[in-house]
Input
Amino acid sequence: MPAVANQQGGVPNGTGSGAKQPTQQSQGAGAQKIVQHVSHPLATVGQRFWALLIDLIIVTVVSSILALLLSIAALRLVSLELLSSIVLGLSILYFILFESMDGQTIGKKIMHIKVVSEDSMKKPDLIAVIIRNVLRLIDSFPPNFYIVGFILVILTDKHQRLGDILAKTVVVKEEERIS
Output
């Protein structure tokens, strides 16, 4: 079984003297982040994809119902432009609302992943959540296909899309709870 790094970044050297050997991870400023990611492994691209798909289905269904109700109330069909604006607005609001509460949308809860601050590994603050989700407009380009976000998630070492990079957030696997 591999040795686990302690808080000082070293591993027991096995001599029984209590002396510590520095590990490669303990060298440099990013050492604490690497150790923190061990307790919070990054979400996989697949987990992020399925969570996003679930969330987009929810937003689309709710938006469609709202558009139908607006059509009935106005006694005419809602324009495609209005429907698109409703979907976009509800989508951004949905992600901001849920991620600001506990770092998880419904899709993320189902997939057992969450958004956390890159530095503290805790729920991001409201400003970070807003930044991350307003930048969905770029990450989802071309519209609703998320190709820009997908490419960035694949190419970045922390699987971050542009919104994550600028908001300093990462998406991690949820900690297992022992009951």
Notes: The chain has a mean pLDDT of 79.
